[in-house]
Amino acid sequence: MMKNIISIICLLLSMCFVACHDDDSEEKGPQLAFSELIYTLDAEEPLKVEIRVTEPVSANTSVKFNVRGAAVQGEEYELSADEFVIPAGESTASITVTPKNNFEDGKTIKLELYPIDGYALGEYNFTLIEVLTKGQLICSFQEENYVLPGEVEIRMDAKDANTGKYFSASTDTKVPFIVGEHSTAIEHVHYEFVDNPDKMFVIPAKKSYGTIKIRFLKWEEGKTTLFLLVPDGNDRILPGDVDQTEIYIKGMTTPDRLEGKWIFKELTSMDYVKNNAWYGGEEIANMPENNLPTDMLEFVNGGTRLKVHATGDMAKYFRDADVTFLKEQLVYLYEFGGIGRPPQVTVSMMNLKRQQRYRLMWMDTKYEPGTLKVVAYDKEGNAVAEEEVHTAGKPHHIELSADRNQLTADGKDLSFINVRVVDKNGNLCPDDTRQIQFKVRGAGAYRAAANGNSASLELFHLPEMKLFSGQLTAIVQTAEEPGTIYFEASAPGVKGATLELISK
């Protein structure tokens, strides 16, 4: 509305100027004017304002101007200079107007030119700049607590203060944060912000959140907490529900920090592991649940050697070994039957090199493409069973198979569909981890998917999932009306597949 009013006023003024001056424009000689009568200062982006002369100047020429308008210079905008300078031999010059805390609607800036020797003021001897307002944002950290092992990513979400909906940035938007005074960890000593000297979250265009990274430097007792806060008192940024987050400076659990004796306490997610790790076989069935109070692991020689003191189930899984640190990463601790977002835990990955002192070992096994055939014989020497495994070729297509193809149309019945990527001969490609997309049409709907990877952070309910060991399981649910259910799976680089299920 404001822009329309400004346009009408300027049009009338322009018409007036034309009516009064067209006839004697030639008599005035060279003229000085703004290039545009109306400009718009975007809420986020700087604006270049230009002036022109009808004949180039012979020497560097300064052009003064007067500033008026409701917008307050220094608070709602800044000017790059208080005069235009036209270089010798040139006919144009410009200054930059940069938006600041422009939150009130209807503000304008008026620039009026002063005349210079040898040049008369032209038609556009002033210009009006409409100042667009910035929307206020409600900002919250995604989590109240984080753990910093080696490096951690912190996320901040933004919502539109007027609508309450998630913010969608038109351009990259910066949101500041501050380090709380009650932090005990010291920047550049115990931690550092990665490539972020200005301490800003940057929300990319068309996104509703921004992230920063913090890197571990040093662990020191009593210097392990870092608090980040959403600034209070910022005209644009309003603190949300989670206006601060606490980061625990843990550091990586390298072998040297493990030196000493460790007693096995519990396996917290046994039910989840057993019900989701379909690929585990005996290793899952024999997880170390029955441990004795005397069972323990001992790290010696600065953590580089593992000594096992165990006679319970733990003895089935651990042997004395050399220890090499690999990495540490955050994973979700899933619980069977759990509700809501699972907690995050830090997992240390280490390589345990086995000792070369056991009877049955294949240290020099050579692996090459081909066929591996196993034949089982009874006590009389008769072959009673056999199985072949073939080396997979290049991934070719998706293969689908359901546990049931006949379902009940009650809105509750489920079909579990095995999704595999295979080569052209139908051999499973066990190293394939590509993203699979799902689509369900007809008398049913997509319900969930899982790949058996306990370290996966993918959401089960979304119609996509990465393969794990070349396969995954998708779930389809019937509608209350009978009919045919069409399940489609597709992925880049391989041929898709469709499976039909009957719901009665």
Write the layout of secondary structure elements.
Elements: H1 2-21, H2 25-28, E1 31-34, E2 38-41, E3 47-53, E4 61-68, E5 77-79, E6 83-86, E7 92-99, E8 108-113, E9 120-121, E10 126-131, E11 137-141, E12 145-148, E13 151-160, E14 173-176, E15 178-179, E16 191-193, E17 200-203, E18 209-216, E19 225-229, E20 237-239, E21 244-249, E22 260-263, H3 270-276, H4 282-285, E23 296-300, E24 305-309, E25 321-332, E26 344-354, E27 371-377, E28 383-390, E29 397-402, E30 406-407, E31 414-422, E32 435-442, E33 444-450, E34 464-466, E35 471-478, E36 483-491, E37 494-503
Parallel strand pairs: 1-9, 2-10, 11-20, 12-21, 30-37
Antiparallel strand pairs: 1-3, 3-7, 4-6, 4-8, 5-7, 8-10, 11-13, 13-18, 14-17, 15-19, 16-18, 19-21, 22-23, 23-24, 24-25, 25-26, 27-28, 29-31, 31-35, 32-34, 32-36, 33-35, 36-37
Form type: elongated
Tell me about the largest β-sheet. 5 strands, mixed
* Number of contiguous helices: 4
Please identify, by name, the CATH architecture of the largest domain. Answer: Sandwich
